[in-house]
Design a protein that fits this description.
This protein is of the alpha+beta class. 58% of the residues lie in helices and 18% in strands. It is rod-shaped. Keywords: Coiled coil, Membrane, Plasmid, Transmembrane, Transmembrane helix.
């Protein structure tokens, strides 16, 4: 009784193996047939269409080669543009460097001629500003004379030829107002003051250069020549103790005035 079931199990096991091998063989047969059929189809069609395929591959090769050449030429042009751009930037950088050197030089000149914040320099600057505003800011002869009379106290020698010439009394040979006769008015546009000996803080007398820009206008005249803009440059000596102008002279150009720029 015990041997028969064991024999049956062995028999079933062998049958299962044979069935599995059979199924594997069937599967391989079908799959293998598919691959073989596919291979023959590719081989036969390739042989049949090999000329067309060759032509197609040749055309694709030519197209790809043309695209490569085009991209190479395009890249060359781009590189040329980059080189030209770099050269242009290099020239521009040189110009910027030159401009910066010029600016640095001008800043150095401005620093050399700059006004100090020391009290006596501030007082001198304020007095000179008052004088030039009175000299060039008026609507008629009456206002000019009023301003002049107030400003005379800032000159150490009010009767000097320089003062009479530069800050005249506004009188003609008939003792009439020149400003009123010409129907003039004037306005101060800009005023700047510079000095070289700014570091000499203990010096009593200091040298200044004043650049004054003003506009004169003839009332009642519609011509373009009725309004004119002027720029005048003065060399000034100033007594910082008495707070008075000891000397004032008019110069024509910046070059005449020690190259103040």
């Amino acid at each position: 009784m015990s041997k028969r079931p064991k024999a049956n199990k062995e028999k079933q096991k062998q049958e299962s193996k044979r069935a599995r091998k059979y199924l594997q063989a069937k599967f391989k047969q079908k799959v293998g047939y598919i691959f073989i059929a596919l291979w023959y189809w590719i081989k036969n069609n390739f042989l049949y269409h090999r000329k067309k395929i060759g032509i197609l591959l040749a055309i694709l090769t030519v197209i790809l080669l043309a695209i490569s050449i085009f991209n190479f030429i395009k890249a060359s042009h781009i590189q040329n543009d980059i080189d030209e751009y770099n050269q242009s930037n290099s020239k521009l950088q040189n110009q910027i460097s030159d401009k910066q050197k010029t600016i640095n030089t001008q800043n150095k000149k401005i620093e050399d001629y700059s006004i100090s914040s020391s009290p006596k320099i501030v007082r001198a600057s304020n007095i000179l500003s008052t004088v030039f505003h009175g000299m060039y800011e008026y609507d008629d002869g009456k206002e000019y004379t009023k301003n002049r009379n107030k400003n005379m106290k800032y000159f150490s020698d009010q009767s000097s030829d320089d003062v009479k010439k530069i800050y005249n009394e506004d009188k003609d040979s008939a003792n009439d107002s020149i400003i009123d006769n010409l129907n003039l008015e004037s306005s101060l546009l800009e005023y700047n003051i510079f000095t070289k000996n700014i570091k000499e803080k203990d010096s009593r007398e200091m040298d200044f250069t004043a650049i004054v820009e003003y506009q004169s206008h003839i009332l009642g005249v519609s011509s373009d020549y009725a309004s004119r803009t002027h720029q005048t440059i003065y060399d000034i000596k100033f007594d910082t103790k008495d707070n008075k102008i000891t000397s004032i002279k008019k110069v024509n150009t910046l070059n005449q005035n020690r190259n103040v720029e």
